[in-house]
């Protein structure tokens, strides 16, 4: 009987440890006056953060519902916490939940004639002027642009790239997975064309089965434009096309580790 109870206790403790290992994040809410709402924020801290006095780089990521928790996700999670733990990554991740029915509005820099949107300036102002201030005052962060990254997929990829153009002194690194350049193509390309001294480190990625190849075309055109603005010898941008890759969390989840290692 004692052996049986000991086994049950061990299984119970193992279950608790597994749950904690699988959910290495916390959440809080913050007022977003620029958007006239509250935002739920998800926070990942590196292993042994509490035992260290070190400061860490920060990644700001969109669509937080899909980053850490399968139950909260729309179509699967990115496994951000598990992946970074496995890499023993020294980085803080701040996930910003999208605004559900306002997602298109928040993540598009310019209004699309057919689909609307175009409120990304307010969304990014919230990140830069409200959220980042709280994160930097609450956690041990490296606050300069070299150690601040913004990252997303689809519309999140679009708004991340736009953020790098609008706030080069804030975001020195950007992760653009399957960036939806198409929805604001003329405006975002013009914005890039008019941007001098573009020194942001950029990781572009998409699958060759996205939008019947249109995603590949747009991303390749953007890479060409970026290279026209600076010497390729600086090796500040990388473009990856995944054979058979489709527009989904599986593609982004599988690509995250390599992209992180290149950016950092």
Question: Overview of this structure, please?
Answer:
The protein is of the alpha/beta class. The chain has helices spanning about 1-20, 80-85, 105, 120-140, 155-165, 185-195, 215-230, 250-264; strands at about 25-30, 35-45, 60, 90-95, 150-155, 175, 200-205, 235-240. An 8-stranded mixed beta sheet has the order 1-2-4-3-5-6-7-8, sandwiched between helices. Helix 5 links the parallel strand 5 (about 150-155) and strand 6. Helix 6 runs parallel beside helix 7 (about 215-230).
Radius of gyration: 19 Å
Can you count the beta strands?
8
Residue share in helices? 25-40%
What average pLDDT do the residues reach? 91
Largest sheet strand order: 1-2-4-3-5-6-7-8
Poorly predicted ranges (pLDDT <50, ≥5 residues)? 1-21
How does the helix and strand content classify structurally?
A: alpha/beta
Query: What is the ordering of alpha helices and beta strands?
Result: HEEEHEHHEHEHEHEH
The major sheet is characterized as: 8 strands, mixed
Layout of helices and strands:
Layout: H1 2-22, E1 26-32, E2 37-44, E3 58-62, H2 80-87, E4 92-96, H3 103-107, H4 120-138, E5 148-153, H5 155-166, E6 173-177, H6 185-193, E7 201-207, H7 214-229, E8 237-242, H8 249-263
Parallel strand pairs: 3-4, 3-5, 5-6, 6-7, 7-8
Antiparallel strand pairs: 1-2, 2-4
């Amino acid at each position: 009987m004692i052996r049986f109870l000991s086994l049950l206790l061990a299984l119970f403790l193992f279950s608790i440890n597994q749950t904690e290992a699988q959910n290495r994040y916390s959440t809080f809410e913050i007022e977003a006056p620029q958007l006239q709402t509250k935002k739920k924020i998800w926070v990942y801290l590196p292993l042994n953060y509490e035992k260290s006095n070190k400061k860490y780089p920060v990644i700001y990521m969109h669509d937080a519902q899909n980053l850490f928790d399968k139950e909260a996700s729309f179509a699967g999670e990115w496994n951000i916490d598990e992946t970074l733990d496995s890499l023993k990554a020294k980085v803080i991740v701040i996930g910003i939940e999208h605004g559900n029915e306002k997602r298109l509005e928040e993540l598009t820099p310019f209004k699309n004639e057919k689909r609307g949107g175009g409120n990304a300036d307010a969304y990014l102002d919230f990140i830069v002027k409200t959220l980042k201030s709280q994160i930097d005052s609450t956690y041990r962060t490296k606050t300069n642009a070299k150690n601040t990254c913004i990252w997303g997929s689809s519309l999140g990829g679009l708004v991340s790239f736009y953020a790098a153009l609008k706030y080069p002194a804030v975001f020195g690194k950007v992760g653009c997975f399957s960036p939806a350049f198409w929805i604001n193509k003329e405006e975002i390309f013009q914005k890039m064309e008019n941007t001098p001294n573009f020194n942001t480190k950029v990781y572009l990625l998409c699958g060759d089965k996205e939008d019947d190849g249109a995603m590949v075309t747009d991303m390749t055109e953007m890479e060409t434009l970026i290279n026209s603005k600076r010497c390729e010898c600086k090796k500040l941008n990388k473009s990856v096309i995944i054979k058979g890759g489709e527009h989904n969390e599986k593609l982004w989840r599988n690509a995250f580790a390599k992209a992180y290692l290149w950016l950092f």
